[in-house]
Structure formats: C-alpha cells, structure tokens
Amino acid sequence: MTKFKTLVKYLGPGLLFASMAIGTSHLVLSTKAGAQYGWVMIIPIVLANVLKYPFFEFGIRYTTVTQKSLIEGYLNMGRGYLWVYAFVTLVSTFTILAALYIVTTGLFMNLFQLSTLNIGLVSLGLFAFISGILIIGRYKFLEDSLKAVITVLFIALLITTFLVIQKGPVSPIANYQAPEIFNEVGILFLISLMGWMPTAVEASGWVSLWSIENQSTQRDKPSLKIALQEFNLGYVLTGVLAIFFLIIGWLTLYGTGTELSGSAVVFADQVITLFTSHIGGWTYSLIAIAAFATMFSTCMTAHDAVTRVSIDVLKKLAPSNNTFKSKSSFTVGIILLALVNWTVIIAFGSNMGDLVALATFVSFVMAPIVGWMNLKAVKSKEMPKKHHPRTGLKILTYSGILFLSLFAIYYCWLIVN
C-alpha cells in the first residue's frame, strides 16, 4: 500500500505521456487499422509500442538522474545534435498541433451538432479555450485535471469495448474481400500507424521536460525506480487503449466496406454513428464523450509540450537572449503556437490527411536518429554507470533503431518511386 501511495504521489510525466499519446494514433489510426484490416493489426501496434519503449524511457532516465532536460543532454553531446532535434521540433510546431486540433474540432462539432458553423471559427474557439487553461493553470492544473480525464476516458472505453465484444462482429457485406496489407497502400498505412504509435519519438524530449516540472512540485525528488514505474504505468495504458480502439474498429466496421473519410467532421460523424448503430443509440453519449475526451486531452498536453520544448530549444540555441528566459515566455509561446497552427488549419481546410502525412513522414524518418541520440545521452559521462540501461534494454534499443531505420528507408523509397 505504501508503494502504491508513493506511485500516486509522483503521478505526472507518465500520465501526461498517456494523455498526449492517446490521440490521432489511437482514435484515428488504430480504429482505421481494425476497420480496414481486422484483428491482425494488433501485431504492428504491439510491435511499435515495444520497440519504441526505450526511446521514451531514456527521457525519464536521463532527467531523473541528471536533473537536466534531454534537450540539454543533446547540447552537451554537441551543438549538431541539438540542431537535429530543433529541426524535428520545427516541423512538429507546424503540423502535429494543427492535425490534433482539427480532429478535435470535428468531434466537438459532431457532439454538439454544430455542422452549420465554420470549422475555422470553431477551431479558433478551441485554441483560445485550451490556451487559456494552459496559461492560467500551468503544469500543476494540467497534471491534476488529466487524472480525472484519463480516468473517465479509460472507463468509457472499457465499457464501450466490452459492449462491442458482447454484441459481436458486424455482418460483412456480400463478396467482401479484405484489402491487401503488403501492397503499396497497405505498407504506407502500416508506416503511418507505426510512425505515430504510441506517438512520435521526439516526444521523449517532452516527457523529459514534464519530468522536470513534476519534480519542481515535489518536496523530495523521486528515485529512478519510482520515476520509471510511474512512466511505465502510463506507457502500458497507451498500449492497452490502442488495442481497445482496434477492437472497436474491427468489430463494428471490418467487412462493411466503409471508407473512412479524411474530413475531420465527416470522420467524427462516421465513427460515432457506426458505433451507435452497431451497439445501440443509447451509447451515443458514452462513445462521443470518450472520443472527444481522447482528443481534447491530447490537444492540451501536446500544446503544452510543444511550447515547453520550443522554448527550451531556443534557450539552448541562443543562451545570451533573455527573451526566452522571461516568465512570460510560456504565455507568449502558447499564444503564438495557437495562432500559427490555426493559420495552418485555415490554409489546409478541413482535410487532415495532408497534415498527418507530413508530420508522420518527418517523425518516422527521424525516429531512429532521435532514438540513437537518446541512447547516446543515457550512456554519456553525465550518467553514472550504475544508471546506464542494462543489456536487455540496450538490445531492445538497437533492435528498435534497426527496425525503424529499415522502415524509414523503405518509406523514402516508396515516396521517390
């Protein structure tokens, strides 16, 4: 019981990671995986979660031991490493948030029957609302509120998944032929799924900064063992919920021949309508709340994280500039990111496919590089040898780097040809 209380006390970075990761990769891609290809897609989902685990774990490991952010670790290894991470962060700034907000806007418009309103106007309101929460509440409020959101989300999805399993699979249409997985379209979908499952590898830097914030709210610093246990709890939760979404998509959509739309509003309407028509109209609120809570919490955590990491990168690249060190830098960063990504949404319209494709491409191609940088950081001279990753974790890391590198090369080959 004492160990459990200690773990609850230090809940933070792992919880925020789960909240951030359970977004597009789960609601959109996991659902599509089950809907289009069936239960077999559980294999790449589990594989991606296992092979990427060390990259995120190293963010917690490095920060807990050194009391420094992973971004500072990149700088200590050499300025070139920091520039690589800065490039990935720049792309995230203009793509990931916009993609997340447009899906969330679509769900919000569907939930409250606001289809007659302009999606740009609704997304602006969502940007303003979340920005206000983050500016006023800061990290502590974010952490506390997400404990409630994640609890509601988990319960809602657990009930939904149970009801779907109890109802059984939907009847397939006549002469239904399952799509090929190992053709160009299938491989590109696999790459998108695994590229964002559980999330982009550069989020390891986000977890590191959340760890620093969490420690600043505690009287005593957590031990490495406790910090890793807290993170592992959140990481396992992301994997379990990805499987929930896969099961829901598989049992309610697989075999129906339904084409899921690239439009945020239409996609939201399709998913919720199809779920309720299969289980029963009375479940509409349950499913709609689960879907919206998924994306709303992801928007909050991603907006907070991209702001923090952008400011930290700029601090390290321009240490003599006091602008990024001021107390108002976080507020300014939140507002700037909101305006930039709202502009991106207006430019791209309601089609989220192009945004997700660009973000996925950069994240997937850079994943093995960022993973290798993280391994180098936790094996650096700043880390006492007793805290270096053990042999099994190192083997898993090298396996993940090799696997993601081969996939990235093949992805680039497909695009060029």
TrEMBL record:
<feature type="transmembrane region" description="Helical">
    <location>
        <begin position="148"/>
        <end position="165"/>
    </location>
</feature>
<keyword id="KW-0812">Transmembrane</keyword>
<feature type="transmembrane region" description="Helical">
    <location>
        <begin position="233"/>
        <end position="253"/>
    </location>
</feature>
<keyword id="KW-1133">Transmembrane helix</keyword>
<feature type="transmembrane region" description="Helical">
    <location>
        <begin position="40"/>
        <end position="60"/>
    </location>
</feature>
<keyword id="KW-0472">Membrane</keyword>
<feature type="transmembrane region" description="Helical">
    <location>
        <begin position="355"/>
        <end position="375"/>
    </location>
</feature>
<protein>
    <submittedName>
        <fullName>Mn2+/Fe2+ NRAMP family transporter</fullName>
    </submittedName>
</protein>
<feature type="transmembrane region" description="Helical">
    <location>
        <begin position="328"/>
        <end position="349"/>
    </location>
</feature>
<feature type="transmembrane region" description="Helical">
    <location>
        <begin position="185"/>
        <end position="212"/>
    </location>
</feature>
<feature type="transmembrane region" description="Helical">
    <location>
        <begin position="115"/>
        <end position="136"/>
    </location>
</feature>
<feature type="transmembrane region" description="Helical">
    <location>
        <begin position="395"/>
        <end position="416"/>
    </location>
</feature>
<feature type="transmembrane region" description="Helical">
    <location>
        <begin position="81"/>
        <end position="103"/>
    </location>
</feature>
